[in-house]
Amino acid sequence: MSDSSRGTWASRSTFILAAIGSAVGLGNAWRFPGLCAKHGGGAFMLVYLAAMLVIGIPLLTMEIAIGRKVRGGAPKAMHSIKKKFEPIGWAATANAFVIEIYYAVVFGWVILMTVCSYKFANLTGDSTAASGVWADLLKTTWDTSGYGTISWPVLICLLVAWIVIYLCIRDGANSVGKVVKYTVFLPVACLLIMAIKGMTMPGAMEGLKVMFVPNLAELASADLWIDAVGQVFYSLSIMMAIMFAYGSFLQDDANVAVDGVIIAFADLSISVLSGIVLFTTMYGTGMTIDDMSASGIATAFLIYPSAIVHLTGSGVVNAIFAAVFYFCLCTLAIDSAFSIVEGVSTAISDKFHIAKRKTTVWVCIISAAFSLFFVTGAGVAWLDIVDNWCNSYNLILVGFLEAIAIGWCFKLRKVLDEINRNTKRFKMPAWWFCTSIKFCAPILLGGFFLWNVITLFTKNNGIYGGYSLASNIIGGWAITILVFLSGFIVKIIEKKMHLKEEDHTKIWEE
Questions:
Q1: Could you give the CA distance from residue 261 to residue 257 in angstroms, rounded to a whole number?
Q2: Which of 135, 313, 413, 431 is the most buried (most CB within 10 A)?
């Protein structure tokens, strides 16, 4: 794809909204509040803020700036640093491809729960029945068995999810820009409605106290620091090939330094707002921090429904709030879902010089075909396994390799100059950026990766989630191997197709 034919964002605000939409996803609505609950509230937010400043913002602006400079997705961006680093970009792209497959399934789940919110009207006060609505709709077995059982409602909603994803990105930056004008603000409006309701309930102030007042003793927990650093990466959509792609659609006069800070703090603000909703609602209905879970799926589909049926004495009102909540999740999911697909299709289109719309069509079709596997009774278990490896191992290792490649094998000053190229009042200082990329990111990410591996083998005997060894190998390690072999697989395909190799390093030097 030539630079002249490459789409661009219609305006600065469109890019910022698209990037915020990508960053703000389901993890903000359920994982952030869940981790706050796991670590006693305020202590987690303090560490999260520190991690966002120390490594989140520098890495975010780095990816956006390099994407703009080389006008390409993750593989082309990493190739521009050094030819042999292109496989790192493909690893990020391949991991994003796996994530988009099951993320669309979760999107389908929240569509289904939005449609079926009426069920809560007849469950007032019945926590057990409310927490079982989702599982009954999915017909899940909770383990890696039950392939013959298919949830037709989930299948229909999954197909709807893929159609919506395609429609949002069919014209690249142009169609994305039209969508985000609505999908970024709708969840904020929904969250504000639920926050206002939550704060009017008895016990709400106790919930806010737990959320915002830090228990300093928690700061001694290694798990707290690991979870906070991990959440920064999950939340800001870095190391997932997305921000390289979004940066490649930027105009040359974009102010990357300032825009990166805006995106990061908007993401944090919505996470905090989601936490307020969850904590006030839970405490307002008589539940406590002990009833909350760090698992996003458990929070959204098992725990929160138990609170919904205790919101008021009116089943109809409770059902309305259920619809608002799950519609909010839909609007959060859509931006993140199509941004992941956009990162993948941009990388493939750049490499193989295929028309962007055609690439997007086939990426959606192939991804949708793979995602059908998760509508079976075994789908929830397999999704849990694949998600764990994609986020706890693949994403972190990609980030580590990316930081090493750019921080130690390239002149960081060039990247910093690109970040600060159009900024006047605020410039990212070298001490902040270079320290983060060269030292903080590799140390933290490398430590995070080793911690996860050691914990898996010392505490869980090498088996995640109590599933079988075979399922861990197939849904975990095998996918990890394929992700990191993807760059070499692409190289073989490239040779078979006799494509002319481009020297992207020249682009950076110009």
A1: 7
A2: 135
Per residue in 162-187, pLDDT tens?
999 999 998 888 888 888 888 889 99
Give the contacts of 224 (CB within 8 A, at least 6 positions apart).
39, 43, 44, 47, 218
**Separation of CA 364 from chain center:** 18
- Residues 142 and 402: their CA atoms lie apart, in Å, by 36
AA identity, residue 208: L
Query: Cα dist. 62→232, 416, 417, 477 in Å?
Result: 15, 8, 10, 29
Q: Cα–Cα distances in Å, from 152 out to 78, 112, 202, 366, 368?
A: 42, 11, 40, 20, 15
Tokens of 500: 């002319």
Tell me the C-alpha distance between 248 and 198, whole Å.
41
The alpha carbons of the chain give a radius of gyration, in whole angstroms, of: 22
H-type alpha helices, 237-255: 242-248
Q: Are 445 and 400 in contact (CB under 8 A)?
A: yes
Whose CA is closest to 76, among 340, 348, 363, 409? 348
Rounded Cα distance between 303 and 12, Å, is 39
What is the rounded distance in angstroms from the CA atom of residue 373 to the CA atom of residue 379?
7
The DSSP result for 260-315, as a single string, is HHHHHHHHHHHHHHHHHHHHHHHHHTT--GGG--S-HHHIIIIIHHHHHTTS-S-H
Q: How confident is the model at residue 400 (pLDDT cuts 50, 70, 90)?
A: very high
Helices within 139-203 (DSSP H only): 152-169, 173-183, 185-199
Q: Which tokens hold the place of 60?
A: 């975010």
Task: Phi first, then psi: give them for residue 39, nearest 5 degrees.
Answer: -110, 25
Pair 278, 299: CB distance under 8 Å? yes
Reported residue count of the chain is 510
On whether the pTM is more than 0.85, the answer is yes
Average pLDDT over every residue of 442-454 = 92
Structure tokens at 370: 């793979």
Percent of the chain having pLDDT more than 70?
Answer: 96
